[in-house]
Amino acid sequence: MTQNNKKIIITGASGFVGKNLVEYLKHYSYNILPISMRSTHWGKELDLSADAIIHLAGKAHDTKNRSDTSEYLKVNTGLTKELFDLFLKSKVNDFFYFSSVKAVADRVEGVLTEDVEGKPITVYGQSKLQAEQYILSQPLTEGKRVFIIRPCMIHGPGNKGNLNLLYNVVKRGIPWPLASYDNERSFLSSDNLNYLLEQMLKNRTIKSGVYNFADDGTLSTNQLIQIIGKTVGVKTPLLKLPKSFINGVARVGSVLHLPLNKERLQKLTESYVVSNTKIKDALRLEKLPVAIDKGLVKTIQSFL
After folding, report:
1. Of the four, 78, 152, 215, 267, which is 20 to 30 A from 112 by CA?
2. In 3D, which of 153, 295, 293 has the Cα closest to residue 226?
3. Structural domain tally of the chain?
4. Which of 66, 13, 63 is nearest to 38 (CA)?
5. Residue 70, domain member (yes or no)
6. pTM to 2 decimal places
7. pLDDT digits (tens, 9 = 90+) for 139-159
8. CATH number (domain holding residue 92)
9. In a domain, 194, yes or no
10. In angstroms, rounded to a whole number, what is the distance separating the alpha carbons of residues 287 and 24?
11. Domain containing 52: what range?
C-alpha cells in the first residue's frame, strides 16, 4: 500500500458513522484529525493546513420528539456555518457536509434525486436544509471543492437506529405486525459510504455539488425482516393486521411517547427510494462494492 500523507479533519468521529469511516481511512493511511465540536475551543483546534474537512457532527433526528427544536438550529445550522466559514478562510481544499435526504423530503413519491426542491417538514430537516443553503450561497476560491452528501438510512457496526429495533423484535421471535404495509426502501451500508467518500477524496475531477448516497437497489421492510430472521436463525411470522388498527396504536404512542408512534410507523412502513445515479456517474461506477442485502447481513451479524 502506498503511503498517504493526506490530513483529514473529521467532526463527529466518535459516532457510529465516524468510527467506521475513521477505521476505513486509516486502513488507506490517511492521517485522521478528529475534532469534537462539543468543546468550546473546537475552532482553535482545527489544523487549517489539512487537505479536507468531513463534517459528520450534528444533532440526530429524535423520533420520540422530545428534543428542544432550537438545538437543531444551533447545532445543525449554526455550528455548520461557523465551520464552513473557517474552511473558506483556510488552505483546506475539500469540505464534505453530511446532510440528509430528510433535508429535502420527509416523504418520497417515486425516486428522490438531487435536484428536488427542498420541502422538509421536521425541524431536523429544516436545520439541515438551512445549512445546505448557506454553504451553496458562498463563493469558492479556485482549488476548493464543496460536497453536500445526502445519505439515506445508514447502517453498519455500532448502529443504534431502527434496524437495531427490528433486530430486537425478530430475535425474540415476535411476529411482525406491520406486514400489511408494502413498501420500497433505500439503504446505505457504512462500507459503501466509506468507499464513495474515499473515492471522492482521491479523485480531483469530481465537481462540487450535492450527491445522494445510497446502496444499489431497494428492499421492502418485510424483506428486511426476513433477512434479519435468516441471519439470526429465527423464523418471524408476518402478520397482516388492519392498517386502521395499527394507525390508531401509533396515534396513542405519539401521545404517550411509546416505542411505536406515528413518526416511527412512517419510518418503518413508508416507501423511500433514493437515486445514487449521480455519484456513480461521477465516479464512473457500474455498481457499488457491497450489495444491499450483503451489507445488511454484515450489520445484523454485528448485533449478535
Report:
1. 78
2. 293
3. 1
4. 13
5. yes
6. 0.91
7. 999 999 999 999 999 999 888
8. 3.40.50.720
9. yes
10. 20
11. 7-158+187-214+273-289
